[in-house]
From TrEMBL:
This is Uncharacterized protein. It holds the Pfam family Trypsin. The keyword Disulfide bond applies. The keyword Disulfide bond applies. GO terms for biological process: proteolysis. Gene3D superfamilies: Trypsin-like serine proteases. Keywords: Disulfide bond. SMART domains: Tryp_SPc.
Amino acid sequence: MVTMPVEAAGATRMKRVINGSPYLDIEKSDYLSLRYFVWISNGHNCDVPVPDVIKDQINLNKDYEWNFGLDVFFYWWGSVCAPRYNHLRCTGSLLTPRLVQTACHCVVHFYVHQSTTGRAVALNAAEEKFSVHTATRFVENLPEGVYSKDFVVHPKCNNDNIDKFTKQQGAFSNLKYDYALMILEHPVTPIHGVFAPLYRVADLAKIWTGIMSKRKMCLNIGFGNFRKLNEVLEKSEYLRHGWVTTLDYLSCERMQIYTKHYNEEVTWFCTDKLGPVSFSSGKGDSGGPVTCDNEYAGIVCEGTEDYNKQMSTAFTVYENAYEYREELSYRIYQIYGSDDALNNYRVTSEPFYNLQFSLFLQGNSTSTGSSTINNNILYGFYGLILSSIIG
């Protein structure tokens, strides 16, 4: 979470998120994203905690590392030590006990061949060994994590600004369809008993159209970089938050100076500073939840000093809609053979749509061919649903 300079009385000063204080009470907060977000870290880079039972027996502190002969014995496990703030890879949201939603660029590398478009190729989960830890206020209090088993990325995820000769990103990145899922090896029980909201299809469309037509207030949270972009990159040791406001469809388009086909490819919304203080997501916050009016409206993607780009959950109907959750869980079981511990699917937010209009939308969604999703791609494309509203 990055903070930007504030002009006051002719001088430039820095104001950190909530004055540099951690968020005080996650459990009692009405902002549910504080409870269902997850901390994703590099498990192969020494971020797997020593089990509590071992720490209690041999009186190890939280940050102890095995750096003597026993580390050979524990080699099969990886480096055995506690998570630290600099191990943060990305952020995500816990959809079910075995499923995390995050940003595509967190779990891929972009492959360039004949064009300047970097095609997303999923990393090997067995090699990378990212681990997922459920929400706490302080990094030192993170519970033991669960390893990722596989990564599923949106088939259209790409970076449009990769130089095909140097294989390096240009002055600006241009991430599109920045969606991914992490399948976990074992089920995770959230500390606070809360999973990401499950909406009806029509409600997701309603959230999208509301963001595109009004300046909604949105909450960003995370442990990512929290200093100015031109300062030393440093991730936070405690959870920070900041408020932003959304830009309408046309204003967001004007910010996309390097996007080739905005009208056809936009699956995101833009957020801007709220008032004189600018709060912006930083490196490490990617993939985390963005909530507008306390609704799970987007996923942190990328940003500049001027604005942030958030991937809208209205375009991840297959993952975030009640109508498809049972099928999603079944397909994961077909592919990975692991039953999800959560099977009592129900809408977790109050519906705010017209029933007849909802039936019309559901009729359109079935015509998109969700039954043709193959075993390698869990994503469905439901642009027709939204285009019937926007167009």
